[in-house]
Amino acid sequence: MQVSFVDVDGIRTRYIHEGSGDDTLLLIHGYGISADAWARVIDPLAVHYTVVAPDILGHGFTDFKDPGAVGAPLFMARHLVKFMDLVGIKRCAIAGSSLGGVLAPLIYFERPDQVTHLILDGIHTPVTDAGTLGADTVRASMANGSKAMSNATWRSCIDRMANICHDPAKSPTDIALIQVTIYAQDDRLSSYLAIGESIIDHADDDATRIRPENIKVPTLFICGRDDVRVPSDVVISNHERIVGSEVNIFDDCGHLPEIEHPQKFIDTVSAFLSK
Asked: 90 in a domain, yes or no?
């Protein structure tokens, strides 16, 4: 894996990348974490793909900018679209985890001709009736994340991820160490809370509402059967609202399939993209 930075409209943006395959896979992480969440899968996937994993707005080592009236989801998606342009991504499959699974369809709606596949990991929002993240889900995430950020120690970061893993022992100690460094930055907690409140404030905005019938590319849902954030029965019962979509439920898995079961994640994604 390699790390680079690029300026996206004045927003210094960090991204991890590896591989030189003809096909590109863009990995978008979740709320309050960073691109390092993909660390266990980037190199293996890069054997066949060019893999690019940016830190989203106000996360990791990417700068924060107030989303303003646009609202965080759409502003963050447009930041990633501009990032794609700057790093030369013309067409790609997108895998989004948690909040990244909300941003991925929004990117697709912004640039439908550039997205070949969607992989929605640990998220059911695109197929709910509302089509947006619910306030309760966001506030639960904020409570878990802000607790770790307010007392950023290696232990608190391990515990934060353990709270959303099926097996707490699978909470990644190496990624937690990176999180301590990230959370030590002065603006990470305030950015995190501002993004969360903006998501809640703009939940009813039509521009951020995801209508599954408008998704016309091959789509795969991956979720853990024991996910405390995303009930697997909701995903199972609703995925058919995206025509031809597929679902893979990981047993003994919580909210982070790419961390808890990296090899199964790699195999599942590779099989889907190779069809």
From this structure: yes
